[in-house]
Design goal:
The complex is a heterotrimer.
Chain A (H helix, E strand, L loop, with lengths): L5 H39 L5 H16 L2 H14 L6 H26 L3 H9 L4 H31 L11 H12 L3 H32 L4
Chain B lengths: L20 E10 L2 E11 L4 E5 L6 H8 L7 E6 L2 E2 L2 E4 L2 E4 L2 H8 L2 E4 L11 H11 L5 H14 L15 H13 L5 E5 L10 H14 L3 E5 L3 H7 L2 E6 L2 E6 L1 H6 L4 H13 L1
Parallel strand pairs in B: 3-10, 3-11, 8-9, 9-10
Antiparallel strand pairs in B: 1-2, 1-4, 4-5, 6-7, 11-12
Helix pairs in contact in B: 3-4, 3-5, 4-5, 5-6
Chain C lengths: L2 H40 L5 H16 L2 H11 L9 H26 L3 H9 L4 H32 L10 H12 L2 H34 L4
Helix pairs in contact in C: 1-4, 1-6, 1-7, 1-8, 2-4, 3-4, 4-6, 5-6, 6-8, 7-8
Classes of the chains: A mainly alpha, B alpha/beta, C mainly alpha.
Chain lengths: ~220, ~270, ~220
């Protein structure tokens, strides 16, 4: 029955805190990859080339429709079959970064589409270059409506990092399972993992909402 | 559209009276729908031409083609004697590439029905964006010139406001200053008062009146304000079904229209007011 | 080994895993819909306690990982005297997780039914319960269907995690086959394609059909 042991809790807490660092690092790296690669995916779908648009669109659909945990296994195990050995960290970052890049490209696409046509026309009438139009006119306006989605996926990528434990990345879940199999006690480690996730994801989600309002004010959009 | 015969069109317009803008048998189609049917229209330097007509008559398309927001399906448009929609290559005209368009576009400025100010920039930043980043004018100089223009349109005190803090009339006046800051030879006004509340239309039309009185700009305007068009234009063109049905001096066209369709349109407009 | 040989040798196991995945998806989806409706309605209740309970449930399940929830239900819940068999633990975890996300969809859809509808129902003196059942929910259902299409695909993907507590689903089968053959591209690649087919050519068309069906039912076509 219910027998929470506080001495055991204090004993394993340091290990879990260190593992939390790894989890945050994985989420941060993965997100950085996703943010940049997602923009590449989104912009690739706006080029005049129909073939490129089609290929990227289908790839994004494929990545979004299949399980991340399976993609992690795929990236980690398929390399060695062809002589390319990836470390768990590298494989994990590729898989999770690619997965969330597909999601973020949809967020960016929605944001870019939400900028009124008149803004493009005004930029043309002022003879702004395409690059300048994107970076100075369109993206600043596409950003605020994208922020909520970007924030959701930042929290999402953080919550999906436990899947990296399946290929041996020593993040929070992996450490908790290791503690469990060493001590045969699962109550404390798994409950603590849940509490640590809550303690990070809830304030982050709230912080993102505040940040979103701040950006809107800063850009004079509200 | 690709294999059209352009041999009849000159590589450039020359002579003493070259018009500032010249449409030569310009055709525009959306699929089957013919929006403009072999349009010929010349606008002299310093002339103010107003385009009127029922909706769907192709009048806004004329301005949008001149701003290169729409491609054309036939004919050639010349600006200041040089082809706009095409460019000379090995002694003949070919479709303009983006470099040529960029070069030619610097002659033309446009104001839109819905202003299209950049919402994340202040009034002043809107005006400075083009001069600094397209024309490469030093910031201090661009700022001084933009402030001067904002002063001219009566918006100097609102220069640090974002568009969301401005009324429609105020936004449109900033948009006019923004277009003028690029020092265009031709200014296009596309229904600039249509989205405004009646009580602020005057502040925008007064700015345009001053422009006509004090500057030698070539202007093309699409409007539903017949009284304004009559006061201000050198010439009025009545568009119907993708063609110029009738054109002439404002007193003649409004006072004594010759064609039946012009009469019908003008009396319908009069009734509505 | 050619791919055809691979399929003829391991096709049966892959197929049985696919069936398990499909059954898990259906069971988890039913649970998720039920939880989403209940929690979504509770979130709009006037009673603070009812509303609070739903909020806590939603925040906990959306604030932590599905994998953490699955392990907790499977490994920790027995310590409280609730032992679930691994298959049950699997679809319960997935259903409860997606139910929390669905609850927010339900709540948003109900709130986006135009105010005039609420007022019209009040004007003919409907009770709050009748109004919700007869007027608001049918319209909210139409609004939320597209979002459920995405949620169901997330749910299908979520079921792959139950392989980690040894439920013999598609993910589990290919992981086992990979462990003995090391044909990673064939095993994991095949599974990726099957998940894609399930999502894109079964769930998506089904949701489209459901949308059309519902539209006809409320006479909007």
């Amino acid at each position: 029955m219910f027998d929470w042991r506080w001495d055991f809790t204090w004993q394993i807490l340091p290990r879990l805190v260190i593992a939390t660092g790894n989890t945050l690092m994985a989420a941060g790296f993965g997100y950085a990859i996703a943010v940049v690669l997602g923009l590449v995916f989104a912009l690739a779908q706006r080029t005049p080339s129909r073939t490129l648009t089609f290929v990227v669109r289908e790839a994004v659909e494929f990545i979004r429709s299949t399980p991340l945990v399976l993609q992690i296994f795929f990236v980690f195990y398929v390399g060695p079959q062809f002589g390319l050995r990836l470390s768990p960290w590298t494989a994990g970052m590729i898989a999770i970064g690619l997965h969330y890049a597909a999601y973020l490209s949809e967020v960016y696409r929605g944001g870019l589409d939400s900028v009124p046509k008149g803004q493009w026309e005004a930029a043309t009438s002022l003879n702004l270059s395409t690059t300048r139009t994107y970076f100075r006119v369109i993206i600043p306006q596409a950003l605020p409506p994208s922020l909520a989605g970007m924030g959701n996926y930042l929290v999402g990528i953080f919550k999906d990092t436990p899947m990296l434990s399946v290929i041996g990345v020593a993040e929070l879940m992996h450490t908790a399972t290791a503690i469990g199999s060493e001590t045969y006690r699962y109550l404390e480690p798994y409950t603590l993992v849940g509490l640590i996730f809550l303690a990070i994801s809830l304030p982050t989600a709230a912080g993102i909402r505040v940040f979103e309002r701040w950006v809107r004010r800063k850009l004079g959009l509200s | 559209m690709t294999d059209e015969d352009l041999s009849g069109f000159p590589l450039a317009l020359e002579g003493p009276d070259v018009p500032m803008v010249s449409f030569r048998t310009v055709t525009k189609r959306y699929g089957e729908l013919v929006v403009l049917d072999a349009l010929n229209l010349d606008v002299a330097e310093g002339e103010m031409v107003t385009v009127i007509g029922p909706s769907g008559s192709g009048k806004t398309t004329v301005l949008r083609m001149l701003m290169t927001l729409e491609t054309i399906n036939g004919g050639v448009i010349y600006v200041d004697g040089k082809p706009l929609t095409h460019m000379p290559r090995n002694g003949r005209l070919v479709r303009a590439d983006s470099r040529h368009l960029r070069q030619m576009r610097s002659n033309i400025g446009m104001c839109f029905q819905h202003f299209n100010l950049f919402p994340h920039m202040t009034a002043l930043e809107n005006c400075m964006e083009g001069p600094v980043h397209v024309l490469g004018i030093p910031k201090a100089e661009a700022r001084a010139r933009s402030e001067e223009l904002l002063d001219m349109v009566g918006m100097a005190d609102k220069r640090d406001q974002h568009p969301s803090r401005l009324s429609g009339g105020q936004q449109q006046r900033v948009a006019i200053a923004r277009a003028l800051a690029m020092r265009p030879k031709v200014m296009l006004f596309d229904e600039v008062t249509s989205a405004l509340d009646p009580e602020v239309i005057g502040e925008v039309t007064n700015v345009i009146r001053r422009l006509v009185a004090e500057h030698n700009l070539t202007m093309l305007m699409v409007t539903h304000q017949m009284g304004f068009a009559k006061d201000i234009s050198d010439r009025v063109c009545f568009f119907y079904g993708g063609r110029i049905e009738e054109q002439g001096a404002p007193d003649e066209l409004f006072g004594n229209p010759q064609k039946e369709r012009t009469q019908q349109f003008l009396s319908a407009v009069k009734e509505a007011n | 080994m050619s791919y055809v040989e691979f399929l003829s040798q391991y096709g049966d196991r892959i197929l049985s895993g696919t069936l398990v995945t499909m059954v898990l998806t259906v069971l988890a989806a039913a649970l998720a819909v039920a939880i989403a409706l209940a929690a979504g309605l509770m979130r709009l209740a006037p009673n603070v306690l009812v509303r609070g309970t739903a909020t806590v449930y939603i925040e906990i399940f959306r604030g932590t990982s599905l994998l953490v929830q699955l392990y907790w239900i499977f490994f920790v819940l027995p310590l409280f005297g609730i032992t679930l068999e691994k298959f049950t633990a699997g679809f319960v975890a997935v259903g409860m997780n997606l139910g929390a996300y669905g609850a927010e969809v339900v709540r948003g859809a109900i709130l986006s039914v135009p105010k005039g509808q609420w007022e019209a129902a009040l004007a003919i003196n409907m009770s709050p319960a009748t109004r919700m059942r007869r007027v608001i929910l049918p319209q909210a259902l139409l609004i939320m269907l597209p979002a459920w299409g995405n949620l169901l695909i997330e749910l299908l993907k979520g079921t792959a995690l139950v392989a980690l507590i040894a439920v013999a689903d598609l993910m589990f089968q290919v992981k086992q086959i990979n462990g003995t053959t090391f044909l990673s591209a064939e095993t994991f690649g095949t599974a990726l394609i099957i998940y894609y087919i399930l999502a894109r050519f079964m769930i998506t068309p089904f949701m489209r059909w459901l949308e059309r069906f519902m539209l006809r039912k409320v006479g909007r076509v």
